[in-house]
Amino acid sequence: MQQEAMAREGSTGLPAAEFRQGSALRQLWETNLEVFQRDRMALFGLIVFAIFALVALFAPILAPNDPLTPLKNNDGDWIKDALPYWLAEPGEDVAEGYTNDFLLGTTNIGRDIFSQLIHGSRAALLVGFSAAAAVAVIGTVIGLLAGFYGGWVDSVLMRAADVAFGIPFIPFIIVIAAFFDPSIWNVVIAMAILLWRDTGRVIRSQVLVIKEQAFVSAARVSGASNLRIIFVYIAPSILPLSFLYGSFAIAWAILTEASVSFLGFSDPETISWGFMLQDAFLSLALTRGAFYWIIPPGLCIMLTVMAGFFIGRGYEEVLFPRLRRM
Amino acid sequence: MTILSIRDLKVDYATQDGTVEAVDGVSLDVAEGQHLGLIGESGCGKTTLLKAIVQVLPRNGRVVSGKIMFKGMDLLQLPPAEMRQLRWREIATIPQASMDSLNPVQRVGSQLMKLLRIRGGYDKRAARRRAADLFDLVGLDTDRLMHYPHEFSGGMKQRAVIAMALALEPSLLIADEPVTALDVIVQHQILEVLRELEAELNLTVMLITHDISVVAQVCDSVAVMYAGRIVEQAAAEPFFHAPAHPYSLGLQQAFPNLANPRDELVSIEGYPPDLREPPSGCRFAERCPFVQADCHEIDPRLELVADERLAACLRSGEMESLRKQAEDPALWQQVEVAQGFASTPNPSRHPYGGHPIKREGLTSPMPSDKSFTPSVGDGDGGWGGDNGEPLLEMRAVSKQFKIGGGLAGLLRGDKEQTVYAVNNISFSLRRGESLGLAGESGCGKSTTGKLLVKLLDASDGEILFDGADLAHLDSDDLLDFRSRSQLMFQNPFEALNPRFTLYRSLTEPLIIHGWKDENQRLQRVVETLDRVNLRPAEVFLDKYPHQLSGGQLQRVVLARALVLHPEFLVADEPVSMLDVSVRAGILNTTRRLARELGLATVYISHDLSLLQYTCDRIAIMYLGEIVEMGPSLEVINNPQHPYTQALIAAVPVPDPTVENPPLRIQEGVPRPTERFIGCPFAQRCPEVMEACLNIRPPAITDEGRHMAQCHLYGEQRDSPKVKRSPEATAAG
Amino acid sequence: MNRGVITYIAGRFLQSVMVLWIIVTLLFLLFRLAPSNPLASYIDTTFTKEQEAALLARFGLDKPLGEQYIIYLLNLARFELGDTFSYSGKSVLDILSADLPNTIYLTLSSLLVAYGVGVLGGILMAALRGSLFERVGTTFTLMTRAAPTFWVGMLLLTFFAFQWKLLPSAGIAPAMVRFRWETEWDKLLSPVFWRHMILPTFTLAVYLHGLPLLLMRSNMLEVLDQDYVTMSRLAGYSEWRVMIQTAARNAMLPVLTALTLGIGYSIGGNVVIENVFSWPGLGRTLVRAVQQADYPLAQGAFFLIALIIVFMNFIADILYSLLDPRVGASAQAQVS
């Protein structure tokens, strides 16, 4: 590379000024681009999120039925426990207990499972992204403040992190969910209160490393102010790490939301995948082996959570290339 | 008898950007009892050669062809299990970075005993006895067997690794940079141990290093590697006396040498060739001042040029006359690669047009014919002619750090401790003057540097810059100070923001200081790059730091320091991370620019020869105090303080006929966490007197010029000597 | 053990006590300042004002908040957790002390399986880095971490308990068996109990094994790059010794810490699985208590879980300082 620098004939015309700025935002954009270009799994994760986001956005259009209304057939009977048609053995009478109308059949009180699945993506993505954003923002700010200012600011914030590490996560959410009116926002709030701890600690230690780097001292010697150092020198190096933890937080948030819904602490008016599984569990779908009901929501959860993992790992590999090395 | 014989060895690394031929046709013989020094700069393949011999090449490396015969066995044909048996029993290796070669979670003694028992077949008791013997052999206290590596100092770790290497009485010992990164006194002592062991155990040693003075001290023969090839091989004395390859010539001239100082160092311009596509002709041709047309076509073979002397150069016949020419540094600037950044020192021209330059009395150090006549002074006399006020003045400055303690420390059980990093130091510096700060690591020299540019604030005392106390600057004055003082960093790979283009890095200081016009900034950046010999400057603007070599980066760091046209520059170990061949170039450029711009400069370095080369004055620091200060030549040639004397005696000389005198002090600087009533150096001082233990030594100054802070020259000079048992001094 | 380590441990202990104090204070505020009446479930419409007041007095809720706080702290310090609302006549401590062992058995057995598999798997993945096996294995492990545990539990239940009827589906034993157990030992020696534990243990282990596996893998990769590993290769130790004795031993340290932490967090995190398998542990009790607005019980369960977590965090710190000689000496290292 050095030879390239040495040998390349310098064109005497000066390059365009704006190109040379090498702005922090452009760098950040390039890091993000690199993650998805280099890592096909991360790209896969991104595509999964994109698809689910579209599904969530257009859920009312895509879903054939209202997810909460029990459905009746033309005779006015409830369509309970209808099996999807594709489960029927060849030659079996499709009319007996099977349905052509519902891709994934119906629940024990006659709700359309497929429509529930589509609507469930809304809760998952809403919780996932807002909780992740909250966790990443809070963690980054706290990590930056603690690491950069040190002293008592650091002591107080890190003791707060110790407290957050001492509070059991799921029990805390359950208690919060029980005290406040049932809402998916309980999960988001509880995650924001507790889960900044990991992000905060990691960002802090990274800030401590960067702060001691010679190029930061150089900026100081050149007269750069604290704010300039934070925003121009430290933050751009930290943000990919925030994205990394944000991606993982999406995954944890979706998982947590599912768990809380499964335990019955979600808003019964909001369909979520965890709620569907609770519904199936409580209505003894397991004993009947109603896989068409149990498997799809779980798969959706797994897929979205994995998408978060893959993206997070993509960042990890770009940020910590040691792990990548073969 | 030849013990190791390498024939036409080729080693490849597969990388993303192509195949690197790291070792390309090396043939080498090592005879029993021989002490061979393998010299070369980073990337020349010397470590790869070592890894090929013991067959621990990384996954992407492979031996393409060749033979490695060891005691009649071809190591490359040996089954892995037999090769494994051979390691350490026959060929022991002291790896590079051997400081980290000890398992951090196991006691050093256990590691040694495990080695003896598993690899050597010792039983438990014999292993314990042998481990103790080995510790004795390398000069370590046997109590230390129970310690963990982190409780060892750098020198002690190195000794422990040497003990491990000798544990199974190998026939061949390969040491890769065994003293790099150690302080000069420790370095001296490790070399001493190696030298003694060589004699005592009749070891065969292959020592790999970039430092020719180390080779001069411990080796009886030399091989020089360049770009994957051996370019010269000879016995040590003839090699140092009369090198037979232009590269060896350059290397020799590029080293500052305390014993034989030079006005201007030779700088080997350019960089080694890209080993993905090595040139078809001589690999050194690009950088060689004696290059001829056919050098680019004919690949010179390693041939016998005299008795037992091998060299690979087409002009080896004319070497006698080339050697004479090579002494002129200007010649080395005429090579092809240097044309891009030819430097034409021209002190009369002053394109910056900034500050008036006062250079009287600066061109050469003061004559040192005056005898040392003691007189008690304030420790800092005036320097040179009376040309105005000092630009910078330190008045009794101290700096302490508190570690542990605080709420977090209390909770964590860390007791608060005070580190006395800098204690009561005073000196002043005029425009155009350069001062060197020297001392072992932990002596406070870097802290002093940070105080000078206000990266740290002094705990006590005043630092005056142009008459203003740095402790009481308002924000405007601070910004003004920031534009007038700058710092050059040790590690060029960390000194630049990896996310910024070079233009961005260089333009930052201008933006901070309110340069609004983009074109003006660009102009200034280009102009500065040009001044530090990065030419054509435009090529470098859009580069990111990782695209440049260390030497180029350090020039960028220098450019950033100069882009605001400061008046004062602190250079903290400016070349210690760089390869020998490019060091001289950086030093020459820095020195020239400092002179041209009338900069007041403080150089911080552990390397006295470097300071002698770059500085008007040298200050020696020990445990936060300046123990001696004076004109460079005076301090080097006529050291007064016992510590300075020891430091100078420890510097290895690149000449095998000059043997360093045995050191009279031991390694190991005490922790700077206590204050001494008497002299801080008393613990280690070979001359220690009773007064030293409880009376602070006065600063004795010779006509305001050469200061030493020592009782030997004061009223207490007749104080009785302290008798000290040899163990007490050896404890370290 | 030198004095540095002892002061370190003492300091850490003090810190843990402070963290716990802050947590119980938060807990107090959370439960007292909750928008709903803490006695809502207890008081039905037939209660007179006097009866209500008497009830409030019985639970000490008529006193000023500050006084309540002091009483609360003193009670916690003596481990007096009060009476439950919903289990008549039983104290919170009775209920929790019956639940805690079950939760601990489940936690420890699943962690044992998970960390055994995880550590060995991690070493294997590191040794086979870059191979197809490693890529498939790592992806599979990620899948197990992404799948919700309760869903994995439901699937396993469907197959093993309901379709194939190989294993029991709920609880720790049928009532008639439980009835015969008089001591904890009877339970532990009963094969029926262990049969009931298989499915929940396996479900948890499927989820838990991912962390040690991925951690061990990346630690191994990092350690294998260290100079002292190169040194032991150079010294001619066999590859097995290099991988296991040197590399794996050093790479294990953070995994052991994770295991210690994992005990604490699993006890809190088992909530969901205990509900899937109707396992009578802390988690199921907590969920029930919250659903039935049994505040003293919920508060007690929460406190107990937090106590265990803080304690295990403390143990993890200590363990690390004992296993890694460098930690206790951190203060000295800064000086030199």
Keywords:
heterotrimer, A: 326 residues, mainly alpha, two-stranded parallel sheet, 69% helix, C: 336 residues, 17 helices, 0% strand, disordered C terminus
Topology:
The complex is a heterotrimer of chains A (326), B (732) and C (336).
Chain A: H1 2-7, H2 17-20, H3 24-38, H4 40-57, H5 59-62, E1 83-84, E2 98-99, H6 113-149, H7 151-166, H8 169-179, H9 185-194, H10 196-211, H11 214-221, H12 226-262, H13 273-282, H14 285-288, H15 291-319
Parallel strand pairs in A: 1-2
Helix pairs in contact in A: 3-4, 3-12, 3-15, 4-6, 4-15, 6-7, 6-9, 6-10, 6-12, 6-15, 7-10, 8-9, 10-12, 12-13, 12-15, 13-15
Chain B: E1 2-15, E2 18-31, E3 35-39, H1 46-54, E4 61-70, E5 73-74, H2 80-86, E6 91-94, H3 108-119, H4 124-137, H5 154-166, E7 172-176, H6 184-201, E8 204-209, H7 212-218, E9 221-226, E10 229-235, H8 236-241, H9 246-254, E11 303-306, E12 309-311, H10 319-326, H11 329-332, H12 336-339, E13 374-376, E14 392-403, H13 406-412, E15 417-429, E16 434-438, H14 445-452, E17 460-465, E18 468-469, H15 475-484, E19 485-488, H16 492-495, H17 502-512, H18 518-531, H19 537-541, H20 550-562, E20 568-572, H21 580-597, E21 600-604, H22 608-614, E22 617-622, E23 625-631, H23 632-637, H24 642-650, H25 690-694, E24 699-702, E25 706-709, H26 726-730
Parallel strand pairs in B: 3-8, 3-9, 6-7, 7-8, 16-21, 16-22, 19-20, 20-21
Antiparallel strand pairs in B: 1-2, 1-4, 4-5, 9-10, 10-12, 11-12, 13-24, 14-15, 14-17, 17-18, 22-23, 23-25, 24-25
Helix pairs in contact in B: 3-4, 4-5, 5-6, 9-10, 18-20, 20-21
Chain C: H1 3-32, H2 49-58, H3 65-77, H4 92-127, H5 132-146, H6 149-163, H7 175-180, H8 184-189, H9 191-208, H10 210-224, H11 227-234, H12 239-269, H13 271-276, H14 282-291, H15 295-323, H16 325-328, H17 330-335
Task: Describe the protein.
The complex is a heterotrimer of chains A (326), B (732) and C (336). Chain A contains 15 helices and 2 strands. Chain A has helices at residues 2-7, 17-20, 24-38, 40-57, 59-62, 113-149, 151-166, 169-179, 185-194, 196-211, 214-221, 226-262, 273-282, 285-288, 291-319; strands at residues 83-84, 98-99. A two-stranded parallel ribbon of chain A has the order 1-2. Residues 1-22 of chain A have low confidence and may be disordered. In chain B, β20 (568-572), α21 and β21 (600-604) form a beta-alpha-beta unit. The longest helix of chain B has 18 residues, at 184-201. Mean pLDDT of chain B is 84; it is low at 340-386 and 726-732. At the A-C interface, α7, α8, α12, α13 and α15 of A face α1, α5, α6, α10 and α12 of C.
